[in-house]
Task: inverse folding
């Protein structure tokens, strides 16, 4: 039985409508849905079968009494839910990208703080999207786990359990955006995630990179950012609205990013 996680905010994924239900006192947008036909060009097997609606996104959700405060802090909470299933040999996943640089962050790329709500996730990340990708990690997350992607790293979010939909929340910079150029120039990230016949995740090296090595790990506790692994990240924001300042202002936390390990 999947671990039940209380996400600390009255918003829930609706797997029948593929939308999010916003409870009393909460706000959120109409979801953006990514269909299989819309992402076929990015897939290993463009003509593969899979769910017609692959994932839905709700950027900028929260409690109504925090809405203006979040705007003022340049901070945004987003939600994503993936369908269950697979895309041919591939798991359901996002396209690999790097967060674009932000003027608000003094031209730093911005980090992201993930929290897994349901399903099983792998947050894959690599230091660079150049010929030598640097350190490469596949961080396995289950409901309640927090995983931080540091500034400038290329990454993708993968649903590792095709039998259950994946849902996650994330703290992001409000001026979020994605840079795909270097990743697409290398035909993807340094490792391709594939599902075998037993629905287990396997990793295939991308030949357009050199000397890549993959470390598969569980998330650690991010003491340098005072993250409490026992408390939902939205609730941590309620308790201390400055805790996630490092997301829109990573430039103020340079020492914490040196030799960062997810």
Result:
């Amino acid at each position: 039985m999947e671990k039940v996680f209380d996400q600390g905010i009255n918003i829930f994924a609706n797997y029948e409508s593929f939308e999010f239900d916003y409870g009393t006192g909460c706000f959120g947008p109409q979801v953006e849905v990514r269909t299989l036909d819309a992402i076929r060009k990015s897939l290993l097997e463009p003509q593969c079968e899979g769910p017609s609606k692959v994932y839905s996104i709700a950027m900028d959700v929260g409690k109504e009494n925090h809405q203006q405060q979040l705007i003022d802090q340049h901070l945004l909470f987003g939600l994503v839910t993936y369908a269950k299933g697979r895309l041919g040999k591939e798991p359901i996943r996002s396209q690999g990208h790097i967060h674009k640089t932000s003027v608000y962050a003094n031209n730093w790329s911005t980090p992201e703080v993930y929290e897994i709500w349901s399903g099983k996730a792998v947050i894959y990340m690599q230091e660079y999207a150049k010929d030598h990708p640097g350190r490469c990690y596949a961080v396995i997350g289950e409901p309640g786990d927090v995983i931080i992607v540091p500034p400038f790293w290329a990454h993708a979010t993968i649903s590792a359990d095709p039998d259950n939909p994946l849902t996650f929340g994330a703290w992001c910079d409000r001026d979020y955006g994605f840079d795909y150029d270097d990743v697409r120039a290398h035909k993807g990230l340094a490792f391709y995630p594939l599902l075998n016949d037993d629905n287990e995740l396997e990793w295939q090296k991308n030949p357009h990179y050199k000397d890549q090595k993959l470390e598969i790990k569980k998330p650690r506790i991010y003491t340098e950012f005072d993250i409490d692994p026992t408390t939902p990240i939205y609730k941590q924001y309620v308790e201390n609205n400055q805790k996630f300042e490092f997301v829109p202002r990573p430039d103020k936390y340079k020492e914490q990013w040196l030799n960062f390990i997810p």
